[in-house]
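User: Before I run my own analysis I want an independent prediction to cross-check against. Here's the chain; please return only the structure tokens and, at the end, one sentence I can use as a sanity check.
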Amino acid sequence: CDGSVLAFVSSLGVNVCREKNCHQISIEQCHPIDAAVSSNGKFMAVVCGNGSVVWWNVRKNKVVRKFESAVSSPKVVHLQIDDTDQFVQLWTADGYRYLWNVESGELDDKPWRGAIGKQVVCSSDLECAATYTEMEILISNRDGTENTRLPVYNNRITRMAMSDDGHELVCTDGVCVFGWNLSTKKKFGPFKSETFINDVAIHGKMV
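Assistant: Structure tokens:
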């Protein structure tokens, strides 16, 4: 959700809402599995079930660019748009990450290993956290040149969230909430809940 634009993926496709008006978009030969909206609300990146990625003009309701070269095998499973709306970070099923320049259509020629895991969260400048193993989280900067591993002393992580500035990371295993100040690497928690925790979110210092 970015500004006045909200996009969500359902079993029927991608739904886009601007102010009070919502409509479903249909992309030929694309079964969407993930989507992200640009910061200006004009564009959307969509991951298709076959591993291809579509850059979609939300206001004109049409495809601007499609990516389906070697990255489609292994498949793209997650994406994140950077705060300039020029690059989309693509995560593939084997744990590699690529930067796709949506203006030129070119990939960064040096993909880097990220982390293999179902949980991936990123800040607006594409600093990311991903489950590396069941007991470790990998923190990496935009181009993968700096990596830090954080040990998890609890059970398997079920959900994570990162603050927009990349300073805070919060996690849950369904029972407890814990996290780190990524600037100081200081951990907080765990705080146990009396009920099962389905998800976590963070805004500023509020979890």
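Sanity check: The CA atoms of residues 28 and 55 lie 13 Å apart.
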